[in-house]
Amino acid sequence: MGMRKVAIVGAGITKFVRRAQETGKELSWQASKMALESCDLTLDDIDMVTLGTAPDAFDGVHMKGEYLADGAGAIGKPYMRHYVGGGTGVFSPIHGWFHVASGMADICLVVAEEKMSSCHPHPQGAFLTIFDHTTEQPLMPTLIWIFALEMHRYMETYGISKADIAQVSVKNKRNAMDHPSAQVAGNITVEDVLSSETLCWPVNRLDISPASDGAAAIVIASERVARRLTDKPVWIDGIGHSIDTAYWATRDLSYPRYVETAARMAYDMAGIKEPDKEIHIAEPYDPFDYKELHHMEGLMLCPRGKAAQLTADGITARDGNMPICPSGGALGVGNPIAATGLMKIIEIFLQLRGEAGKRQVPGNPRCGLAQAWGDLMQMGTVVVMRS
Amino acid sequence: MVKRVAVVGIGTTGFRPVTPDVSFRELIFEAARKAYTDAGIEPSEIDGFITTAEDFMEGYSIADEYCPDQIGAVLKPTQTIPGDFIQGMATGYMMIMTGAFRTIAIEAHSKASNMRNIGELMGFAQDPVYNRPLRETPHAVAGLEMTRYLFESAASSEQCAQVVVKNKKNAMRNPYAAFGAEITEGDVLASEPISLPLHRLDIAPHADGAVVAVLADEDTARALCETPIWIEGLGWSTDTPTLEMRDWGEAAYARLAAEMAYRMAGIGNPAALIDFAEICDEYSYKELQHMEALKLCMPGEAAYMIESGATSYQGELPINISGGALGVGHLFEASGAHKILELVEQLRGNAGARQIPDVNVGLAQVWRGVPTATGAVAILSNM
Amino acid sequence: MKLEDFELGGTQLKASDFKTGKVLTTEWKPDLKYAWDNGVAIGRYLAEFKEGRIIARVCHKCDRIMLPPRMFCELCFRPTDEWMYVKDTGVINTFSIAKVNWDASRRGPKEPPLLPAVIEIDGASEGMGIMHMLGEADPKDFKIGMKVKAVWKKPEDRTGAITDILYFKPVAAGTEDKNKGRPEGRGKEVR
Questions:
Q1: Considering the domain boundaries, does residue B10 fall inside one?
Q2: Residue B47 sits in a domain of what CATH number?
Q3: Out of B77, B83, B121, whose CB is closest to A62?
Q4: B144-174 burial by CB neighbour count: b if 16+ within 10 A, else e?
Q5: What is the mean pLDDT of residues B315-337?
Q6: Which three-class secondary structure state does DSSP give residue C57?
Q7: What is the pLDDT of residue A230?
Q8: How far is C127 from chain A (nearest CA, A)?
Q9: Looking at chain B, which subunits does it touch, using at least 3 CB pairs closer than 8 Å as the criterion?
């Protein structure tokens, strides 16, 4: 295609915690500083900055991109915030890619932050106002409803049980035991998930990722700069994003077609014809356990309705043929929305460099994918990376 | 390699103090439909979409959710930039320059009338720990800045009032403008003191409206239209969000954004090469402060230019010929959109009663308002 | 690089740290007020709710009868063409049994669970659903695919809001409307 090649050259992340002592600015700074140090750069080397962060209602600041600017290292620099709901974290490197692939910047710092604990009494309260103010909010919905409705439809369509789905939570929380940022790692069983508190049937407490505070950052660079900075650049070879209609109740809830369109865009750019064979490792978004399955299907990593079987067969385990969420995902590492997406990008970055430590998947993966999802179950963001 | 990007279509609803007849969706659809018809393209043929919105302005926790339908972006690559339209345009420009997208549509709107206590909202943008407990209103923060600017530049409140007189008069010629009026300097100075030296009439009243623009790469632009309006320069910058640390006299964010845009456009002497400019006048003094930051005049010189009529409709450097925010209405995230609209109409020669003869290069500049120190600049030409 | 080689930021606080004053906090309760313009489509939709009816908009190009109604077709990107009443019955697309409130507080032991659902409304195009509530039957008796009917507030209590329908209840077997499905043709346009 003749496009400029763009690589990720450095990464930083904070621990993901339920309530951080640090402000959102400070978390952003911690992650940014680590990302710069990881590739021996200073802020002076950075041409431009882009920040991903989800609802202002979490941090409790109007125009929070402006508020977080100094923490993200943006003072005096071209700086912009991008936002696609829960899909934001995986959109962050896409927006960074625009900066570098266009030739506008050679080195771009990409930061993702979320401080959900500022919202009281519970961050869930911020989700009431994601629903249509006139036709839905008067019913006093919670975010969990919409997931419960989608999960139920998915189960019904493909004949999948709650126990099938619970395996994802078990796998991811176990994977997260090896992740230094992890908030809710643990060795649990399917029975633990099924017997945890029912919040909105079919969703139980352990089907859900937690509310979290945290930040992550990466440095991306043009080919010329990347090759000077590191001998292990990880290339952003495909990007895709897609949004479906806001009239969510009129959609087929059993299949995320917006993920499919985003994936097709990224695969086309990366020249991927058979994703299930060419993608060695994937980090789909897993804020709820069924979402990992849903997204694997949307990403065409397996046929529709078959992802639960792959999980049961151990194919998606860290030592399986197609490791899915080896980081531990949102279910295990935690879910500071935008930072989670970038955490997934960082996991693929480390895995493809062979630097994932105890989380390293066997077999020298060379092609990986991260995906996030957001808004009213309508936004898909996909990044394909190669070593 | 893509070399140039142009605006190939633009559509608007115009701007009104209130729009109770339409929902935000219906408002935006009108602008989008006009933009696509203007560009001679259907949304199904557009490669990507960008909307600009801030959550609390819309009253949604994730305002992004509601963006696709009314701009024809269902199942299309679409994103929200919580920033000004010109920042959205910068993203669109970069997307096309990657070579992966040929056409991008950008949307911005204001439904400010639906937000019933904007003062409270603007206060909610302040630092929650250091500033909010002081309960200073946004206009008070602007008053602080105006005081310092007048001190450093030796401009006067009277000269700021002349900005209001000029812009409201310009707006009389603009059918899109909501607040055109024939007033005097005395009217401004006699209006209610808000946060002295700011008076009520120094402050742009807000308006509703939507704008959608379509960008295209050079080949596509030439195939689609006879007069593509080329993006020659873009710049955007953020100074410190901390009120206590910033330079209150100079608008550093505007200077940095302009320097970036001039570098990209290859403009060494903006005062000579820019034919006209639409710059942020959310508060009257901001027009003067921004002219200096943009190097359209020397520091301290802006006040003389308004005094001498140099920035009037028939002056040598017309500023805010549309009426600016003071005459059109303050549009929040859509502020830059209205300015780009004016540039495109002038450069196409379609500006009707307010057309400036023989213009080739226009500059648009925005600031994101109190308490931010973020701004963006775009330079467009018809050559 | 390895994450393990870095000292990661992010310091976990406990709930008790707030109670004991180990950390100081500042509070702010935003008082933001909105009055959203319903516009043409939703304005009419809600006005019809007040009359105990559900109204949709039709696009002649793609032939969809759309709910909630909209003045433009988001797929054809043109104005929609006419109003059309649809029924106040439908089919459950999916539902949940919710034991938490909107702010994640738990429902009390004596409070029945909430039953949010997506209901595909009869007379609208296939798959055109709205979110609403189920009621009047035991939660375990609801099934996906079940036929339901709106239970309206009394006319004098209606305000022109989505909550003018209290909930949808099961349609007892044998009493189903024989004329289900979409209304015939375009002759039923209403103005």
A1: yes
A2: 3.40.47.10
A3: B121
A4: bbbbebbebbebebebbbbbbbbbbbbbbbb
A5: 97
A6: strand
A7: 96
A8: 5
A9: A, C
- Scanning C146-175 for CB atoms below 8 A from A yields 161-163
Is pLDDT above 50 for C181?
no
Amino acid A124: pLDDT:
80
Does B78 map to a domain?
yes
**CA dist list (Å): A367 to A277, A384, B244:** 10, 7, 48
pTM: 0.96
CB of C39 within 8 Å of a chain B CB? The answer is: yes
CB proximity A91 to B under 8 Å: yes
Domain count, chain B: 1
- Residues C151-166 have pLDDT tens digits of 999 999 999 999 999 9
pLDDT at C187 over 70: no
Rounded Cα distance, B36 and B28, in Å: 12
Q: Is the ipTM of this complex over 0.90?
A: yes
Residues of chain C contacting B60 with CB distance shorter than 8 Å: none
For the packed helices A289-298 and A143-158, what is the interaxial angle rounded to 10 degrees? 60
Average pLDDT (A133-152) is 94
Rg value, chain A, Cα: 19
The Cα–Cα gap between A136 and A123 comes to 19
Cβ–Cβ gap B111/C37 under 8 Å: yes
Structural domain harbouring B22: 5-116+206-224
Rounded Cα–Cα distance for residues A121 and A135 (Å): 25
Confidence label for C128 from pLDDT (cuts 50, 70 and 90): very high
Percentage of the residues of chain B whose pLDDT score is greater than 90: 96
pLDDT value, residue C186: 42
Domains of chain A: 6-120+210-386 (3.40.47.10)
Nearest to C37 among B19, B74, B124 (CB): B19
Contact A181 C1 (CB under 8 A): no
Instruction: Tell me the C-alpha distance between A141 and A182, whole Å.
Output: 30
Which residues of chain A are within 8 Å of residue B54 when distances are taken between CB atoms? 56, 62-63
- Residue C176 pLDDT > 80, yes or no? no
Q: Does C30 sit within 8 Å of B120, measured CB to CB?
A: yes
Of A16, A128, A253, the CB nearest to C10: A16
Question: Is residue B43 included in any domain, yes or no?
Answer: yes
* Closest C-alpha to A381, from A308, A315, A310, A283: A283
Average pLDDT over residues A246-268: 96
Q: What is the pLDDT of residues A18-29, one digit of tens each?
A: 999 999 999 999
